[in-house]
Automatic annotation (TrEMBL):
Ranges in coiled-coil conformation: none
Organism field: Chryseobacterium salivictor
Lineage: Bacteria, Pseudomonadati, Bacteroidota, Flavobacteriia, Flavobacteriales
Name recorded for this polypeptide: Luciferase-like monooxygenase
Record-linked Pfam families: Bac_luciferase (PF00296)
Domain of life, source organism: Bacteria
Gene name, Swiss-Prot/TrEMBL: limB_2
Amino acid sequence: MKKFEISVLDLAPVKQNKTIHDTFNDSLDLARAVEKLDYKRFWLAEHHNMASIASSATSVLIGFIANGTTKIRVGSGGIMLPNHSSLVIAEQFGTLESLFPNRIDLGVGRAPGTDGITAKALGRNPMNINQHFPQQIQELQRYFSVENSESLVRAIPGEGCDIPIYILGSSTDSAWLAAEMGLPYAFAGHFAPQMMETAFEIYHQNYQPSKEFPQPYTIACVNGIAAETDEEAKKLSTTLYQAFVNLIRNDRKPYAPPVDDMDEIWNPMEKAHVMQMLHYSFTGGEETIKNQMSQFQKRFQVNELMITSHIYEHEARLKSYGIIRKATDALNAGL
């Protein structure tokens, strides 16, 4: 088992009886807290048409978080590239990198981050996404290159900026692409656990070294809910369970506070579905979290764990990331 970094994936969760302004302030407060705890990076994810998630204007929110912190890397986990022009994303992230040098990451995915009707409103063409997505990544690389100064179309800001690109995935398709392009690979294990092991195997076995990344680099995103006791953490996790039940029911309302008994909310089929989707969730007190992380790392040997934490009370969420930091340090110290 090898040592690993830890980072944060934040969806800018909107909670019942809270405003979106509150959400953004909580995200900034969380970023400042995990920066003090030496988390490696703080990523925000692009989603649309969801009353529970406020990170739709991802680039804008990245700027807000980066401006309120000093050293932690801030980026996208990710930008859903087929929703955008490659040039616009190059300009946006070139601007961010120019404002906050050596701190900006660009994680890109091909999923819509929303439902079909909203995807259409975003201007996506589902007929050419699989072909166009790799081309868009190459376009980004070209726009960021110094050599593009001779091109008729230039990204200003963006040209000459050192902005690492990460490929995100929730299936095996992006694993092949990340390996072929010699780019780091982040897998969405927090909601799509089934293919993670196969995807990482494909990525490692087929990795083509690049100048920027001579070695493969893997990030696994997982759910993390830590508290003083296992029992408290289990209750806190009911906010996450309710959120996924709402997704199943196509009811995208804000996050709800924890409950004592989930069986009053979900039926057996919904429970089975939710638990399958949330298979890779670290839940418990510090010792339990450490044991769960150890078992996970022995199996996957990732370079980095990215923790997303759907906890209703902000202070409990901050505390959870502190406990996860302690568990990580204890585990890495023994390696």
